[in-house]
Amino acid sequence: MRQASPSLNAHRSVRGFAGWWHGCKAACAGLALLWWALPAMADGPLAGQTVRIAFIDPLSGPVADIGRNGLRSWQFMAEQKSGDGNPAGVRFLVAGFDNKGSPQESLNVLKVAIDQGFRYIVQGNSSGAAAALSDAVTRHNAHQPDKAVVFINYAAMDPALTSEKCSFWHFRIDADTSMKMRALTRFLMQQPDLKKVYLLNQNYAHGQQVSSYFRQEIARQQADVTVVGDALHAPFQVDDFRPYVQRIKESGAQAVITGNWGVDMRRLVQAMQEEGVSLPVFAYYPGLKGTPTALARAPSTMPIYQIAYSHTNQQEPVRSLSRTFRKRYGEDLVVLASYDGLEMLGQAMKHIGTTDPARVASRLSGMIFQGFNGPVQMRADDHQLQKGIYISRWQKIDAAFPEGAEGTDHTFAPVQFLSGSEITGGTGCQMQRP
Q: Does 41 score more than 90 pLDDT?
């Protein structure tokens, strides 16, 4: 494990880390297609073939901005990794299907996508939707093996999806909640003065799991940390978080831990600014669209820490890709799971010489490939990608970390990296293989 000084205020730890850095109507509402020209001299055993991918996530409603950023990320990366951009020589085409954040609507648009001939789907926002899709894909493939579908989960983090609810056809390319929480609690244990934390989360599966897994991890690691508050709120329905911030102040908490994302993360940040609260906040999603801009409005740098598989200042090839994406869309490329997802598909298709989903799924199981941040493995036991996690701190840009988040003069700079082997756990998956 590479780590910087454990002090929350030790800015020199960020700079020191830099030296290491080399390494249909309703159903189809919001449908978005991106077409591009296939490179003239595409090489590879499958050159000229097109692989169509259905992106199923919210493209309308309170988190539409997050969903659209995710869709653009997958479409942009598909463009970069088409033809000569992947070893198989295939052309990737990504189409957006709006599930409105609903498991039931996810099933509706899945049927539409399958009827339209899509054999690969990606989804990430909502573990409830992911569970519904995984079950539906598994049933579909059992009944129609000649039209098998592969499900790539790029962000839904419920550990059950690769444990008791695992499926041969489901592949998660983000770290799950237990892995991220293991990274977070290990970092907190290096902060000797941090004794009291407040948990604030959305009242649905993801937020509930952030709370429960935090408690499990501090107990398992015998950390000298006390939970002084544990609040759940309705997701995307709270207009004013100041009452919650007041409770945090009254609790005597020394830090806040939250799985909030989208508008709920932005409004929490705004309320903390308005109430003059400057406690460290440890969060999974402060880098998602809109939150960096909200953070940058504070009169002084807020002590925000991100627990994620990437950060704002990745090296090549991500740096150039991120700059191109920002120039084209005016927003940050944060869904780098799209890189890993398309890279592993291209590698698998080259190896087996076909785009057939059933054969691709068999090749993906256990496969080691080069992700955007180094070699990673899709664990065969449960189809959970084994990848590392960064703890990054919100700070002013500097010579070591010059890339600003959302065009601001602040960035998420890494202070610690934990490899996949350090944060992985066991699995209760009893996978039924075809």
A: no
Look at the chain and count its residues.
Answer: 434
Same domain assignment for residues 338 and 303: no
Give pTM, 2 decimals. Answer: 0.89
Distance CA 249, CA 196 (A): 12
Task: Decide if pLDDT at 287 tops 80.
Answer: yes
Q: Hey, which residues does 394 pair with through a beta bridge?
A: 412
Q: Is residue 424 part of a domain?
A: no
How confident is the model at residue 8, as a pLDDT?
52
Query: Alpha carbon 82 to chain centroid distance?
Result: 22
Can you give the pLDDT at residue 93? 98
Q: Is the pLDDT assigned to residue 6 strictly greater than 50? A: no
Any domain includes 233: yes
* pLDDT top residue among 78 and 27: 78
Domains contained in the chain, number: 2
pLDDT for the residue numbered 426 = 87
> Are 301 and 364 members of one domain?
no
Instruction: List the CATH number of the domain containing 64.
Output: 3.40.50.2300
Q: Is the pLDDT of residue 34 over 90?
A: no
CB neighbours of residue 300 within 10 Å: 7
Residue 246, both tokens: 């007041």
